[in-house]
Amino acid sequence: MGPATFEKAVSPNLSRPWLERAFGLRQHGTSVRTEAFAGATSFMAAAYLVVVIPGILASGGIDLAAVTTATIVSFAFGTLAMAFYANLPFVVGPGIGGAAIVATTLVITEGVPWQIGMAIAFWSGILFLVLTLLGMRGVVAQVIPVPIKLGLGAALGAFIALLGFRNAGMVVANARVNALTLGDFSAHGALVALIGLAVAFALHQRRVPGGILLGIVVATLAGIPLGVTKIPIHLFGFPHGIGPVAFKLNFLGALKPPFLPYLFAFFAAEFFSTMGTTLAVGGKAGLLDAEGNMPGINGPFVVDSCAASVGPLFGVPAMTALIESATGVEDGGRTGLTSVFTAFFFLMALLFAPLILMIPKEATAPALILVGFSMFANLRKIDLSSLTEGFPAVLMIMVTLFSNNFGTGIAAGILGYVAVQILANRARHVSPGLYLLTIPVAYFFWTVATKH
Strand ranges (DSSP E) for 258-309? Predict the structure, then answer.
């Protein structure tokens, strides 16, 4: 037997034990082939974020080419960390909400440099990591009242959806009446967004993997004859460097008291998104016990908190496990090997940077609109007929839209909750920790509400 024949004969026997040791494929009732297909499905479902996240951040003055590379790399390495540390089929990457808080709320609305915004996201990740390592997640979860926790997603969803409508040109700021009004739906940019929205919605409803991504592609192509999409000189090429966005954070500037609510905004969005995603996707994968808990849940929390801390260093805020992971699980993914394949596809996307950069903001608007609307789902769990339960959650959503500021919306929701409990003679239902949190939140809200 020659060397080549010998290597061919023994290599499967050498690779199989390693895969079993690393991922436990047999134990989880899966195979390499199944995990590969599931990884491809997860990539297709989450790939639209490679376009959407850089586009949002670029609106805040961050270099588009550099942050596109940073976003793709962060997806790959965050997902690999989840694969090898937690052995879970989860995609880890930046969420739309975190990018919107940095670019829209902090930079555009508040005039805060993006370097400070990224540093706030960094300190939020550090706080998340410390609480995870100390096992204090339960304490934090108990301090925040249920209506606020359930309403956070809807407030952020409204914020994201409005951003999508504005990027599409379907909603515009009217200086004459000092309000938002409908835009020109016959404009080429709006038409491109409507085409993409129709395609993405139809495919999403039919559970087509990557439906949102395909909607972006169709909208981009439709934008070529309409003059909205500009075709690059080269369609393929090596990725741009991340020098313009990496390690530019203003760590000390982010620790000023006025930024405390934004630190909480990042932390709350990260904390509850991670918990919800982990349990939801884990349930689909059959990883929960009889009580609905997930054994070893500390693993994904450690990965998420580390990713949330490291991501901003490279210009990518609010890294977290993404709900798009559920598509891969539905396709049979059960272990970290799914995440390995997903990460591989993200790394391959680096070669298509010119194609990614040609996609206009109007083509990504449908993704923002659909994702934003999907985040309203938890509102049905709130008793909206009760003022003590429904008023704080709805107030948080409305103030977020009025102020174009997610941090201000959270502050209003917390203050509204405490106020209605006291007025309803239910002060004892407010935890001491929440009363303590109310002090800096009230100071922040007062400065925002009186600065004009």
Answer: none
Give, rounded to a whole angstrom, the gap between the first and last alpha carbons of the chain. 84
Q: How far apart are CA 408 and CA 105, in angstroms?
A: 9
* DSSP 8-state symbol, 241: P
Burial bucket for residue 108 (CB in 10 Å: 0-12, 13-18, 19+) = middle
Q: How many CB atoms lie within 10 A of CB 208?
A: 16
Which of 332, 326, 310 has its CA nearest to residue 277? 326
**Rounded distance, CA 435 to CA 427, Å?**
10
DSSP 206: T
Measured CA to CA, the distance from residue 319 to residue 39 in angstroms comes to 19
The string of pLDDT tens digits covering residues 212-232 is 888 889 999 999 999 999 888
Q: What is the DSSP letter of 231?
A: P
Residue spans of the domains in the chain: they are 29-378
User: How many degrees, rounded to 5, is the angle at CA 282 between CA 346 and CA 263?
Assistant: 70
Interatomic CA distance for residues 74 and 70, integer angstroms: 6
Compute the distance between CA of residue 357 and CA of residue 23 in angstroms, rounded to an integer.
36
pLDDT digit string (tens) for 356-380? 888 888 998 888 888 888 888 878 8
Average pLDDT, the chain: 85
Report how far residue 305's alpha carbon sits from residue 128's, in angstroms, rounded to the nearest whole number. Answer: 5
Q: Which two tokens stand for residue 251?
A: 């760590």
Least confident piece of the model among 97-101, 155-159, 269-273, 323-327: 269-273
Cα 322 from Cα 42, distance rounded (Å): 10
Residue-wise pLDDT tens digits, 329-355: 877 888 999 999 999 999 999 988 888
Cα 369 to its chain centre, rounded Å, is 14
Q: Return the pLDDT at 24.
A: 87
Structure tokens at 88: 């879970």
- What's the CA gap between 35 and 342, in Å, rounded? 9
Phi, psi of 16 (to 5 degrees): -60, -50
Q: Which two tokens stand for residue 359?
A: 């996609």
The DSSP result for 357-411, as a single string, is HT--HHHHHHHHHHHHHHTTGGGGGS-TTSHHHHHHHHHHHHHHHHHT-HHHHHH
Helix (H) or strand (E) holding 287: none
**Calpha distance 223→45 (Å, rounded):** 22
Helix residue ranges, H only, 136-243: 137-143, 146-168, 188-205, 211-222
Please tell me the distance from the alpha carbon of residue 253 to that of residue 259, in angstroms, as a whole number: 9
